[in-house]
Design a protein that fits this description.
Helix content is 5%, strand content 49%. The chain is mainly β and 83 residues long. It is globular and about 40 Å long.
């Protein structure tokens, strides 16, 4: 598992990751196979993954409408996108 830092953020505001760079940490309702919303869409959907950034673990969220989604996490009010 990799520890990302400010230097890993691209000019466009993304951190580029590989699946092995993330921590699999599902919540209880995710382990039970339930969704956060009835439709599966929303502005701040909780994912089952975390990322290590500057020595701390942060939950990754997803904004998803239609057939497109953007994953991100927040550090001190700053939104960092994950790809």
């Amino acid at each position: 598992m990799r520890n990302f830092t400010e230097a890993d953020i691209s000019v466009s505001g993304f951190i580029h990751t590989a699946p092995e760079d993330l921590i699999e940490a599902p919540l209880q309702w995710q382990r039970e196979g339930r969704q956060q919303t009835a439709t599966g869409y929303g502005a701040k959907l909780t994912t089952s993954r975390k990322i290590r950034f500057n020595g701390k673990e942060y939950r990754i969220y997803c904004t998803c409408y239609s057939n497109s989604g953007t994953c991100w996490f927040t550090v001190k009010g700053r939104r960092i996108n994950v790809s």
